[in-house]
Amino acid sequence: MKKKNADGNPVSFDLEVRTFNKYNKSGGVLKSYKNAKVLVGQKLKGKPFVEAEHFYRKHRSRKNPNHWQNETRNIELESGQIKKIKIRYIIRFNGTFVNY
User: Fold this and answer.
1) More confidently predicted of 24 and 58
2) Confidence class for position 34, pLDDT limits 50, 70, 90
3) Domain span at residue 65?
4) Which residues 6+ apart lie within 8 Å of 31 measured at CB?
5) Rg of the chain over all Cα atoms, to the nearest angstrom
6) Half-sphere exposure of 35 (CA within 13 A, CB side)
7) Are 12 and 37 in contact (CB under 8 A)?
8) What is the mean pLDDT of residues 59-83?
9) Is 6 a domain residue?
């Protein structure tokens, strides 16, 4: 997922992910994403930090996503939409089954 081409841009990949609802412990819908790219911080969701609105804070108002600890990754789809996926729920990566 983290591979980059010669220009330094992320390489696209195909992904199949199983969904899960943690509130009622159900799930099972298989979603497939074609030509997705992993985001490495260049595009962030949320409002940009404006120091005038948060004059009492010296740090950014955006929360740390803790991707390593939460086992999540942000991917960008072909349409430009950003999705957060859990790496434990990946079924196939580029057509190859993933086993944990």
Assistant:
1) 24
2) very high
3) 13-97
4) 16, 17, 18, 19
5) 16
6) 4
7) yes
8) 76
9) no
